[in-house]
Design brief:
The protein is an alpha+beta fold. It has 27 helices and 16 strands. Helix 4 packs parallel to helix 9 and helix 7 crosses helix 12.
């Protein structure tokens, strides 16, 4: 409950945005708007309970399992269809670490094992050996860098994730209607759908982890040995894909340890031993297999402790975010893991000592770090498809382009913020209303994993793209929380329920007092508001002018002219300009002379100052034929894609330059 209250408190006052260069910005938000979402959810719950037609429909779904299964199948079919549709229409090419792993797998076929050396990518990031081995095996079947196959596998994993959440929903007592809301949420929740493009093991690992957790719970209910194998193998493969899933393993071990106080201790010990053997053996098995294939000894790589040291530092991206500390200290110590570890431990002690002497700095740091990870409503899904390295195998459609734009980021962010508020509030209601259940400890299994993820990323390297794996675990609890609220609205006359409502009322009062007392002291949660407003204005895609025929000139009345000199054409500026046609698509414009069918172009060399014309018949999507027209004070700025500005000199020479000049760069477009 303190974690949920803390996250709701942060969300009331601010929202985190991730800029294209992966920089965190903490921006002011409206508490009234946030509270309105919660109040609206409660009002809808009240209306549903008072509408006979709706309650009749819900009752029919809850009582008719055949009808429930048909609707469920349809919803999951839609979810799968939307995921595949996204993959085929976006076809994004993974970059950064995702690409590095695929590239190493490809080079392995040529006997190029340089990246396994202590100075290579795998040598320094031994935690990636599992994903590399899977990618290498896949390459024999589907070829190398066949990203669509991985993404389609992620689409299957997405369905498994929501199906396993439905299965867990059965354990905590969700009604049929409540269980249908889980795949429905999956259909409308864009961040998880976009993440099927993320070829990094997160989706597959989460799907396998949820299968492992449900199999563990099945084992303790049915004592079936098959469930031991399924649970142990699934969590082991999940950790092979992504080592961070060790957090879930710890949670599973804690759940099993609870059963040691009950009956069947031999079975419990057997389950724990199987978990440890498979989970701890998988990393050694993957490493050993790659050593046999390559003939190279794989060292320890960068110390995991360095990620904790980095997670306690400020960074240009955000508090606790990547600042290359783990990579650089590994190099500085000449790729000596133990030496790097010793320095990291000392840095951690120094940092904690600083926090001890400056407690309010510690409060500020961990509050900002938490907000940067858990209060970012897109969980970097939009950043994934819009960062500087992102690319696609197709010329994306306008709606995909919109999602990747600044406006798309704001749109998905606003919808995601609503989802965050509703899920966190619903989970809070679940914890509040279900504390006295006899099987309460069993229902808290996924919440335990959520708490583990929260505490882990409080100290580990920060990244909001990883916390979505824990946020989605709360979905069954949130729905159950609203169902519990509905039952209390329905049976409000019951004295016992009224007592619980008093508890809720007192909790809300305490939360409100906390917010008003300390809300005004958390200025650092909104420190980037003005900077974000400027950034959003500068990066909002704008075609500049409507498509049509124009003349383009400068303040003194001179206009761009196409001048013929013998058989050659030259672009200059004169008192009588030429008609140009401007056609824009996805924020880029083409400027051409319709009568002569020639494009306005600029030199591909960044140091070039030439502006010339190209043949219309030779149209290609060359960057030198593409301009970005932005409206500004007193006219328009016409830029190249790499940031050079169209400029005219006093003697009429037209050129591009990276310098921002006071004169000669503001154009007037009329017609």
């Amino acid at each position: 409950m303190p974690i949920l209250i803390f996250l709701l408190f942060i969300g009331l006052f601010s929202t985190t945005y991730i800029l294209v260069p992966e920089k965190v910005m903490l921006v002011k938000d409206s508490p009234l708007w946030t509270l309105a979402v919660v109040v609206l959810a409660i009002i809808i719950s009240f209306v549903i309970n008072r509408n006979n037609r709706v309650t009749l429909l819900i009752t029919k779904v809850n009582s008719n399992n055949e009808l429930y299964r048909k609707i469920s199948d349809i919803l999951f079919l839609i979810l799968g269809g939307i995921s595949v549709f996204w993959i085929l229409t976006s076809q994004y090419i993974p970059n950064a670490d995702q690409y590095e792993i695929q590239s190493v797998a490809y080079r392995m076929h040529f006997g190029d094992y340089r990246e396994f050396a202590k100075y290579g990518y795998i040598g320094g990031h031994v935690n990636q050996v599992g994903m590399l081995l899977v990618s290498y095996v896949f390459s024999f079947i589907f070829g190398n860098e066949n990203y669509i196959v991985f993404q389609l596998a992620n689409a299957v994993a997405l369905i498994v994730i929501y199906k396993e959440l439905v299965k867990f929903g059965c354990r905590i007592g969700l009604s049929n209607f409540g269980k249908l809301l889980i795949p429905f949420f999956g259909i409308i929740y864009l961040p998880m759908i976009i993440y099927v493009s993320f070829v990094y093991g997160n989706m597959g690992g989460l799907a396998l982890t949820l299968v492992a957790i449900n199999s563990e719970m099945d084992f303790f209910e049915k004592r079936n040995v098959k469930n031991i194998l399924i649970s142990s193998i699934c969590i082991a493969f999940a950790m092979m894909l992504k080592s961070n899933f060790m957090i879930f393993l710890i949670g599973m071990l804690i759940y099993a340890a609870i059963h040691l106080f009950g009956e069947h201790k031999k079975w419990t010990f057997g389950f724990i031993i199987a978990l440890l053997i498979f989970s701890l053996g998988q990393s050694k098995a993957a490493k050993w297999t790659l050593e046999i294939i390559t003939g190279e000894d794989i060292g320890q790589g960068s110390s995991p402790i360095s990620y904790i040291a980095m997670g306690l530092q400020e960074s240009g991206l955000g508090p606790g975010w990547y600042n290359a500390y783990n990579d650089m200290t590994y190099i500085w110590h000449n790729y000596d893991t133990d030496g790097q570890k010793r320095e990291a431990i000392q840095n951690i002690k120094d940092r904690l000592g600083y926090f001890k002497e400056n407690p309010w700095e510690a409060v500020s740091f961990f509050t900002r770090k938490t907000a940067s990870q858990w209060n970012e409503p897109t969980y970097e899904s939009i950043w994934l498809i819009s960062n500087d390295l992102s690319n696609s195998q197709v010329r994306i459609s306008s709606w995909v382009y919109f999602l990747a734009s600044q406006k798309g980021n704001a749109f998905v962010g606003r919808l995601g913020k609503i989802a965050q508020i509703l899920v966190l509030s619903g989970t809070f209601l679940f914890v509040l209303f279900n504390r006295k259940r006899n099987d309460y400890y069993k229902t808290l299994t996924l919440i335990m994993m959520f708490i583990g993820g929260f505490l882990f990323h409080l100290f580990w390297e920060a990244k909001s793209q990883y916390t979505i794996s824990y946020f989605i675990l709360l979905l069954p609890y949130a729905i159950m929380g609203y169902e519990s609220l509905n039952r209390r609205i329905t049976f409000m006359a019951d004295k016992e329920k009224i007592a619980v409502n008093k508890e809720l009322f007192l909790t809300v009062i305490v939360l409100a007092v906390f917010m008003f007392l300390y809300g005004g002291k958390c200025d650092y949660l909104t420190a980037d508001t003005e900077s974000y407003i400027v950034y959003a204005a500068e990066n909002t895609t704008n075609a500049g002018v409507e498509n049509g025929d124009y003349t383009i000139g400068v303040a003194d009345g001179r206009e761009i002219t196409l001048l013929f000199e013998g058989d050659s054409q030259k672009v200059t500026i004169s008192d009588s300009g030429s008609i140009v046609r401007i056609m824009s698509y996805q924020g880029k414009s083409r400027i051409y002379f319709p009568d002569e069918m020639l494009y306005l172009q600029y030199g591909n060399d960044r140091n070039s100052v030439d502006v010339f014309v190209g043949d219309y018949e030779d149209f290609y999507d060359y960057a030198d034929q593409s301009w970005i027209i932005t409206e500004t004070d007193g006219g328009y700025i016409i830029e190249t894609e790499d940031g050079r500005i169209l400029t005219v000199s006093d003697n009429g020479e037209i050129f591009t330059t990276s310098e921002v000049l006071e004169e000669g760069q503001t154009w007037h477009i009329s017609g």
